Structure formats: structure tokens, C-alpha cells
Amino acid sequence: MSLLELENVTLRFGGVTAVNKVSFNVEEGEVFALVGPNGAGKSTIFNLISRIYNPVEGDIRFDGKSILQTPPHQIARLGIARTFQNIELFEQATVMQNLLVGRHRHRQSNMWTELGFTPFVRAEERRHREAIEKVIDFLDLQAYRDKYIAGLPYGVRKVVEMGRALAIEPRLLLLDEPASGLSVEETQDVAFWVEDIKKQMGVTVLMVEHDMHLVSAVSDRVLALADGKMLSLGTPHEVQNDPKVIEAYIGVADEHQEVLA
Amino acid sequence: MRTVFKTSYDADINLFKHSAQRNWYILLLAFALALPFLISSFAIGEATNLLIWAIACMGLMILVGQTGQASLGHAAFLAVGCYANVLLQERLGLPFILSFPLAGLIAGVAGALIAMPMTKLHGVYLAIGTIAIAILTDDFIVIATPLTNGVMGLFAPDISIFGYGFNRYGNPVGLYYLILGITLLVVLGYRNLQRSPLGRSFAAIRDSEISAQAMGVNVARTKAVAFGISAGVTGLAGALMGHFAGIFNNETFNIILSIQLLLAIVIGGLGTIHGAFFGAAVIALLPQTIAMGRDFLNKFMASGSIAIPGLEAAIFGGILIAFILFEPQGIYGRWFKIRTWFELFPFYRRDMFRRQKSYLKTERMR
């Protein structure tokens, strides 16, 4: 049984079919990448998995169970964490507070105990702190722990968002363009982290990425999409050399050709 | 500048960041306790009024500053708390020590119930929706005349705890200490909220609903809880206002009060407990300051008295406009800057607190 299964998933916005009969399985412990030109439906698939949209057709299963009846806020509880393409951090909070929000899934206390801040709540807080301290160590965020997001540079924000998703302690991590806007060195860091997330933490990763160097360096399998349809599924090498993929890129958007080459 | 060496996670969890900060607050508390011995009994009444306003401001601050939901209907919760407290005492014969927390609870439940449909609205629509609550409350009080005595109003009995009476005129110092104690409890609850998961989920909703949801926060429920806690605290303030005023009717808690509350927390500084107190100080002391200024001017004017209708509202509006233009972070924001200037002297930079423009939300580098 695969960890995540999409079966004939279709989503239409009015007359536009954003996702057209897409089916793929993500196996436990692999890094699976979605690639494709702009408007191919990659981020829409992420939003379908996070239950922001409802598919008009098809089924999405996590760990064998359909998630189409699960409300959006319960997705994190199942063990699916995500980042956003345009960074959706809590701007008026520190890095630490942002990561602590990621621990919300593990909240055991309730409103009344928290208003009184009982010893139990304190013990829980210590446990949450310990967990996010591991994430801070993992992503080298020590220097930014008490800094407000509003003053942080773009690259660091990107990393904090990944950290917040890791604080959930997910089984499946959805990374929406983790390397967009990052320098070459930062992108290399991301590659190492994705590697470690998979190997050390045992977390399955599904990512959308345009940087084909990063994709071929870290992913086990790649799915190429264009206009909401599946083009090609296979190892990074197979997909890059698929004539249909090359045609889609050359035909649709020139700028990606040099990235691919 | 102080560098804090953190040796355990508790350093971040504790109420105070470091011992010096704790000592400053102990000093402030000592000042508050010593206040009745330093000022006249009239001024103690004003200080008591300030504390009641501070509780109301903290109530609204939880919703507006912490959770980012606007409300112009909080006078309604002041009214619910005030009427519930007095009616529980008069009709059911409950003592203050029971009726007061119950009044807060009733206002809180009312707030949470109203929030369920209301929080589906955002921004200015939410503000308009909550205005409707404030207006409706006025009418409900009149409709429920058998219970509330409508436009004739109700008299609040003296607060009595285990036979010890608290009266604004008979025992102003006792009332001051009682309300100071309640204020401290509310501040403690607010601080606890800020350092626990619920408070963080409030802030998460304020900054980004979509990612709060992705982190597992039930947005609709959390907003209702925020509304409930906010309305509950406001209800407590309403109950105290009733006792402080002695008599109240449907017009005591009108829409102007809602607006004043919202303006107070904006002037004080959104999102901080300090801001609630600064805002309360402005709103509670401004009418007296204007009255004193008027008396002062009268001494030099031959005509006798100066009566300018709406002077108070005009001055209040002017202060608000000035703050929004020159110090959007309120009095607390200004205070924080001054403090930082001294802490970093002589290294303070003028642009230190200038908000960086939001980063270009580009999809990727070319």
C-alpha cells in the first residue's frame, strides 16, 4: 500500500480543467517530485491534498483511507505537513513562535488549563520546546530563534517555513518550490536537507520544484505535468529525456529550456 | 543592553524574561498598592475607573490585537456582563463572588455563540456585522423590560464579599484594591494565553488563516473561542462598570462605547497588554483632563463658562488621527522605541523600527 494515492483526480475552475485525471502513488520513504511549466496544475494538486479544493472526480487516499471527507484542519493531524509557494509565515511572531504553531497538532491542553497555566501545560511547553529545538538544530536556525519574521531575509523565511512543517512531525511533507528564489548555495542546503529528511527522519517528501538540478539530485521519481494532464512518470533521467516532456517545455515556455539542459 | 543567558527552556516559558524585568513589575505593583495613600479619594475613583477600562480594553485586545478580528460590538458584551451580574444578585440572590464570574461566563458564551455565524465575515464586513450586535442589544434591553427595567434602568447593589462592603463613595480604597486584584488576575490570564498554544493559534489566525489551517488549527472554532474569551473578559469589565456607575439603563452601553473601546486599544498599541492599559488611561482620564483644562481657561475668560458641545469627541478624534498618521503602533510602540534608544545608546538608528517592505512575492528568480 502506498502512503499517498491519487486516483483519477480532476478539478475544474469554470471551464478550465486545472487537473485532469491525474493518478499517481507516493511510496513510503521516497522523494517524489512534480514538475511542469507554469499553470500545469502542480500547486493545485498540493491544494487538493491539503483539502483547500474539492476534486470533482477521483479519490485521494492517505495511508489507505480516503481523505475527501476530512476537514482541512485535520490534515495536519493525519501527518501531512506543507509549505507554501509564496511563504505564508506568521509575520508578527518570532521564528520560535512560528515553529511552536507547527506543534499545534500535538496540543494536549485545553483553554482552561492554559488560562491557568497549570504545571501540565508547562510540561507540555517544555516538550514542544524540545521538539522544535531539534528542528532548529537540524536547519541551523539558532541565530534567528528570537527574531521576528517581518525582518528576516527571504532565504531564511523559506527555511523557517520548512522548519514549521517539520515541527508537525509529519509522515508526508509537501514542499511547494522549496528552492525558488534561493541562491545556488542555499539550494544546495535544501538538497542536503531533503536528503536528510528522507533518510534520517524517515519522512516521505512530495515536492514541486522548477530547479531540475535539485529535482534530479534528490528525487527518486518525477511526474511531469502540462495543462493539468500527466505527461511522464519515472526516474528523473527518464522524465528529462521523454520526448513529450521536452516538447511541452519547448512549446510552452522557452525560459525553462536552459534550466533543463 | 542586557544579554540574557538562557540555561533552560523555562527562560522562554516564564512570565518574566529576566529578574530585572520582574523587579520593575514588582515596583509597579508596589506603586499601585501604595497609590491610595498618595492621592485624594476622588483620584482613587479615577484610578479605579482606569482599571475597569483596562480590563475592558484587554478583553477587546484579545480579539482585535491577538486574533486580528475587528469588533465594534463590544459594548453589547459590557451590557450582558453588567445586567447578568446585577440580575443574578437581585433575582437569584447570588453573592457577588458567584455572580461576578458567572456574568463573565454568560457574556463569554454569548460571545462564542454570536461568533459562530459572525466570524465567517472578514475585515470591514465583520466590523459592520458587530455594529449590528451593539445596536440590537440596546433594543433587546428595552424589549426585555420586565427583566431589565428597560429605559428606567437598574440600580447596582453595593459589592459585598463575605459581609465586607465595597462602595465607590463609602469605601473607595477597598473598591480600588478589589478591582486591582481582578485586573491582576486578568493580566495573568492574558499572559498565560500568550505563552500557550491557544494564544499562538490566535496569532496564527491573525497573520495567515490559510497556514494556520495547514498547521492543524481549526480556524472557525478558534475564532469562536477568541470571541468567547474576549467577550467574557469584557463582560467582567461590564459588571464592574455597573457597580461603579451605580445605575445603568439601555443607553449606558451604546455604540459610542464600542467605538471608544476600539479607539482606546488602537491608541494604546495593538497586540500588547501595555497597549490596553495606555489606551484605558487615555480614555478614562481624557474627560477629566478636558474638564480641568476648561476650568483653567474659565479663569481667564470674562464670559464665565466655555461650553463647546462635542469638544471631547473632537479632541479624541484628533488624538486618534495623530496616532494613525505618526505612530501606528500606539503609545506602547512609542514607549518601546524610547526604551530601545536608551538601551542601545548611542547606537540607535533612526530606521530601526521601519517596517521593511514586503518581499516581492515572485515565483522564482529569473
From TrEMBL, chain A:
SMART domains in the record: AAA
Superkingdom field: Bacteria
A molecular function GO annotation: ATP binding
One GO CC term on file: plasma membrane
ABC transporter domain sequence ranges: 4-252
ATP-binding recorded as keyword: yes
Keywords: ATP-binding, Nucleotide-binding, Transport
Keyword NADP in record: no
PANTHER family named among the record's database cross-references: ABC TRANSPORTER ATP-BINDING PROTEIN, CONSERVED COMPONENT OF ABC TRANSPORTER FOR NATURAL AMINO ACIDS-RELATED
Protein name: ABC transporter ATP-binding protein
Organism, as annotated: Neoaquamicrobium microcysteis
UniProtKB/TrEMBL annotation, chain B:
Superkingdom of this protein's organism: Bacteria
Residues passing through the membrane, by range: 24-44, 50-65, 94-116, 123-144, 174-193, 224-247, 253-286, 306-326
InterPro entries linked to this entry: ABC_transp_permease, LivM-like
UniProt KW Electron transport keyword: no
Localization per Swiss-Prot or TrEMBL: Cell membrane
Gene Ontology annotations for the cellular component aspect, listed alphabetically: plasma membrane
Keyword Membrane recorded: yes
Coiled-coil regions listed: none
Membrane topology: Multi-pass membrane protein
GO molecular function, one term: branched-chain amino acid transmembrane transporter activity
Sorted UniProt keywords: Cell membrane, Membrane, Transmembrane, Transmembrane helix
PANTHER family given in the database record: HIGH-AFFINITY BRANCHED-CHAIN AMINO ACID TRANSPORT SYSTEM PERMEASE, HIGH-AFFINITY BRANCHED-CHAIN AMINO ACID TRANSPORT SYSTEM PERMEASE PROTEIN LIVM
Record's protein name: Branched-chain amino acid ABC transporter permease
Lineage of producing organism: Bacteria, Pseudomonadati, Pseudomonadota, Alphaproteobacteria, Hyphomicrobiales
